[in-house]
Amino acid sequence: xxxxxxAIIAHVDHxxxxxxxxxxxxxxxxxxxxxxxxxxxxxxxxxRERGITIFAKPTSxxxxxxxxxxxxxxxxxxxxxxxxxxxxMVDGVVLLVDAAEGPxxxxxxxxxxxxxxxxRPIVVLNKVDKPDAEPDRALNEVFDLFASLDADDDQLxxxxxxxxxxxxxxxxxxxxxxxxxxxxxxxxxxxxxxxRQQKHQDEPFxxxxxxxxxxxxxxxxxxxxxxxxxLKVGAxxxxxxxxxxxxxxxxxxxxxxxxxxxxxxxxxxxxxxIVSIAGxxxxxxxxxxxxxxxxxxxPAQPIDPPTxxxxxxxxxxxxxxxxxxxxxxxxxxxRLMKEAESNVAIKVTDTPGGEAFxxxxxxxxxxxxxxxxxxxxxxxxSISRPQxxxxxxxxxxxxxxxxxxxxxxxxxxxxxxxxxxxSRKGDLIEMRQAGAxxxxxxxxxxxxxxxxxxxxxxxxxxxxxxxxxVFHSWAPHKGAIPGRRQGVLISMENGTSVAYAxxxxxxxxxxxxxxxxxxxxxMILGEHSRDNDLEVNPLKGKQLTNVRASGTDEAVRxxxxxxxxxxxxxxxxDDDELVEVTPNAIRLxxxxxxxHERKRQSRAx
Length: 605
Fold this sequence. Notes:
The chain is an alpha+beta fold. The protein contains 15 helices and 35 strands.
């Protein structure tokens, strides 16, 4: 069968997964009476809850005798490592651009990788039926983006379609029939070349492992594209590392190919197809699976380095072990190493003493997703404030700079620019009207300056602003950046919080907890209205007497506490604070729970 391998790439929320839903429906993948779900490719619980794609997943459709393997990729910059790996498996990319927003940071990041590999893109201007859509402007911006990324003449001569993924149509003209996605299917078959690997069917078998999965029945499962030769079930193959070292020799127990949303067992894999194989015990991502006669590994696509680190430690608070079952440092280490093995954008290192582990990644969202998955699996953890990874270059300290794209109502643009170019040491690159009373601001800001900024940004823009960020470059260290201005309210007692005590303390600041919640000495209860930390007693009840007089009893009405999400909590804490994460709770606490030790450390600091 004729074969095409493509990846659909776009910025977050530009409609990739919805478009893949329609491609599956219109290609006849589903039966007439088959029950279907929205965003079928977002199979992970967290993906469905958050409405974003986190893991790159292949699927396969058939169109008029051609099998098209489609990879749905994440759109958020923090999961860019997934996209970088996937591009080595495909021969073409469909670049999806929101006709109202135009190319966004993640579009630029992924497109630069795709163009560098020589892939010829197809541009789809999505959501053209929205009232604020400006497809002509978006198309011009895409061309300018390609030109700025040094695209060659072939890549600049890209075909484009106008589409609405939700309505299920794509047309070559804006005023086309708006009937179905046939124009997109036909363009993919016409424009994307067949895999060049198909010419190497007679050579020894070689495959580069791109993603790693686990199956309760098959064990480790590696997915990748067959670069040359054929592979049959039962064949003995070997795994080579990036530098050519032999990792293991194993017998292939199963080969599966993507057919629609499911994977089917096949007897033989051929060059050019994307398949999953089982049987190995040690081989991992970026290794070459090959015939025994092969000595040289396939080149693996380099992955951009991590930009932030977070320390994962055991939960040593007085409430430890009440919710979770997995609390030992050994179990935490095993889980983190397993994550680093399948996710090449994450690096894990042990800290001196072995009680905590430094996890380096792309951003706070990526760390938040990992922590959320672990707490759902029954882990208890203590998490430090994110720290930026620095580099030494020619004796000079370099720090990561991110390109920030902000869409904000005109009235709030001044406050946003003041924050990012002032205390957060950013450089304003571009500012222009984006239509509908919005201003688009593009700035280059140190990663340090963006830690904890998102909550402040939403406050400054009354929740209407949209901020997107992506790694831009390394630059010389820009000096000190002030942290959080407000102090915190710290519990001085162990016990259960009392409504009357919290009510009496409300003028001191805003609380993160409500009444009848367990508290302990050193736990952070809320944010102080001033810039210093304050120890308070949340257990102090009302003094009771045997004398009653009318009017002396006041009704206790507590202000609703501020509930921090996991990402907000990680971004909020200071260097001397931790986030305590359990399956049922997210708490903030001081790193040193003993008040005397805390004072001694603050004096030493």
